[in-house]
Design a protein that fits this description.
Strand order of the largest sheet of chain C: 6-7-8-3-9-10
Order of helices and strands of chain A: HHHHHHHHHHHHHH
Helix content of chain A: over 70%
Shape of chain C: globular
Largest interface: A-B, 46 and 46 residues
Radius of gyration of chain A: 19 Å
Radius of gyration of chain C: 19 Å
Structural class of chain C: alpha/beta
Largest sheet of chain A: none
Largest sheet of chain C: 6 strands, mixed
Number of domains of chain A: 1
Number of strands of chain A: 0
Order of helices and strands of chain C: EEEHEEHEHHHEHEHEEHH
Distance between the termini of chain A: 24 Å
Helix content of chain C: 25-40%
Strand content of chain C: 15-25%
Distance between the termini of chain C: 44 Å
Chains: A mainly alpha, B mainly alpha, C alpha/beta
Number of strands of chain C: 10
Oligomer: heterotrimer
Number of helices of chain A: 14
CATH class of the domain at 5-89 and 165-249 in chain C: Alpha Beta
CATH architecture of the domain at 5-89 and 165-249 in chain C: 3-Layer(aba) Sandwich
Shape of chain A: globular
Chain lengths: 325, 291, 250
Amino acid sequence: MSAHAGGYSADPRIRWIESLPWIVAIAAFFALPEYLSLGARILIYILYALSLDLIVGYAGIITLGHSAYFGLGAYIAGILAAKAGISDPMVQLAAAAAAGALLGISTGAIILRTKALTLLMLTLAITSVLLEIANKATTLTGGADGLSGVVVAPILGLFRFDIFGKTAYLYCLLVLLLGWWLVRKMIYSPFGTSLTGVRENSLRMHAIGAPVYWRLVLVYTLSATIAGVAGGLITQTNQFVGLNVLSFESAGELLVMLILGGVGRIYGAFVGPVAYLIAQDFLAKQFPEYWYFGIGTMLVLVVMFARGGILGILDGSLVKLRSRP
Amino acid sequence: MEAFFASLVSVAFHGAALGMILYVISVGLSVTMGLMGFANLAHGVFAMAGGYVLTTAISRFGAPYPLALALAFALVAAASVVLERLLYSRLYAASDLEQVLFTIGLIFIAVAVARFIYGTLQQPVVLPDYLKGQFPLLGRDFPAYRVFIIVFSAVMVALLWFGVERTRWGAMVRATVDNRAMAQSVGINTKRLFTLTFALGSGLAGLGGGLGAEIIAIQPSYPFENLVYFLVVVSVGGLGSLRGPFVAALLIGIADTACKYWLPQYGAFPIYVATIAILLWRPSGLFGRHA
Amino acid sequence: MSAALETRGLCKSFGALTVADDIDFRLEIGARHALIGPNGAGKTTFVNMLTGALPPSSGRIVLGGEDITAMAQAKRVKRGLGRTFQINALFRRLAVIDNVALAVAERRGVARRMLRAASTHADVRAESMDLLATLGLAEDAGIRILDLPYGKQRLVEIAIALGLKPRVLLLDEPAAGVPSLESYRILQVLDNLPKHIAILIIEHDMDLVFRFAQRITVLVQGEVLVEGPPEEIAKDKRVHQVYLGEQHHG
């Protein structure tokens, strides 16, 4: 937990090791040009996982419905591009963010009044409502066939989305950089510390006079906004929106990625999607049964034996190494 | 008018059958959540397993329908004891998040295993002849299968309620749901109670899955697709309650059938909206113990 | 002169069970006041009504001349009402300093800041460190609560409450669970608390109560049995009966 938990004695300066993900991302851009579309997908999922980590890892809200905000962002960007003729990527992304924020604050204000199973149930129900709308409002969303004909103009009128996915990759990388910077700032801020306070003991937070409910609504809205942006990005890079962006499986998968990387530590959201999506790309298509079996087994094992995920295991072995004489 | 009345009866009847199935499957979830505080999202796995046991026993081994039903209950209950002792029991004290993740993991595993053995297609259910026809009642014909579901489930429900109200086991369950520390201090062996109750709840889910195989299709995605329904029943009904989920299951069964019949263009939308509204009005469910 | 905290006719019942019956109570400014009584006398219920965790059935609560009966918990804290918990209610996986700093930041109104790092709030850090130092916890600032001995955790409880700069401090069994050999540390800390804070202590350890309090209220079955200075309470026959009776039963 100590790694990136923020707090009043945590040094907020960026350490050299934190440049590693960005170096790897740039290196991958030059070294693996044939995998750039997978790369862009990974970058988007990192942003999506970061948004989930904010509420699950830092604020301690358990949700199975985070795909609502991701999916809404994806559909809003897609509908603007395919139906409203608005092809500017910046406008699409801003709309996706605004939609995420709006849905985040309105649903957050409702569900955060509840706790535990009721909260979990409400997140599921809200996502199911959206999925049902997307499924039935075929004139807008294309329903089960998906929404195609998504047109994305060059970024700032200069950088065209090419068929090799170079522009898309760098564009996603930049947006992720911005998202990471924002989330990192927040985690190290007094606000971020107060969120961990709510996670650890919300009763005591009330007793020290903290407006717990409003803090949670705020972080939930922020998280939903970022998820909306990630959804907008997935539409722009795929130039297609399918119902699966809103599915329960996709929310579950995201949770798996985050757990795999490590919850409540900002770089867990980086490690998880990389490991998951690369493994999925190589294994899932050939052996779908084994893939799901593997994912399930891994989840069970992580909960039983390695609650900190990959980064938790790394941390643990580092501590052991250092403590050796 | 007569046509409308006929469809009203039909919707109520089909809805009641679906509601009964939902209740038999979900009641175990309500009890385990209330009793052990365990968020078992993988409950649908037991129902699916019951469905596969039933269809396999009939189509592969030619077992008679009643025996196949009994097997669906017994095998699933037995398997759940192993799971409970090996895995679930280690996580009773774990956080909600860990329980949720663990049970999602179990769902993934079960989906994979089901796909591996049975493929992705829906399992056909071979019903015995006496359940295939129509059953005349008050001048109308009702499908015998659904009549059987309603009657059989009602008997099971009566047995279960009687068991919880009148037996020593039931008294211990009620005491432990109410106050676990107190129950332990008066010498209730909560460990054995948990295992037994878990097995019964899972066995009932298996039974419900088998019984309702014609209504809720048996296929690998079963635990994911129907999870929302089971959770709606439990959360709207109220955790740890027996009667709450019964009312909720019937409401949902009938509402779902009515929506599909009269408002097919909206899908399950009204159900979800109603669920959200009810949970906002009463966060602990209609019959939850805490206001 | 109005009292620091006052209740008038405070009642609370759960169904047929009355746990607070017409309690009139006055906590003077800067008081060292103890609330004692046998188990189940309604002490914690009383504190929970004072802090706003539990709404009273009837009666009024007045803090520094202001009626706070219907006020939300967080607002009472802002008005200067602090409390500690009988069972540790700490942020277990956070460092000691963060436990205190969370309270200090809340009081200073900086806890919702998002874009400046927490550690650059030198004022919050300094105040938290000062507080820890006065309680003898300076060296433990970086340790997580999980790794802290229980006795010191009880002190962190008090530190968090002090971080709110309360005018009235309610201490709910501050020495609960602490071996009596170590409870002198708690007493030391209590003795050194700023004189202007009005303190109401609820405690079972009679040694501690009689050494600390200048005034004692005895609560029995939700009613005030007697109130007075320690010498009087020590001599009071009814108090003896209540306590001897209790000892007698086990």
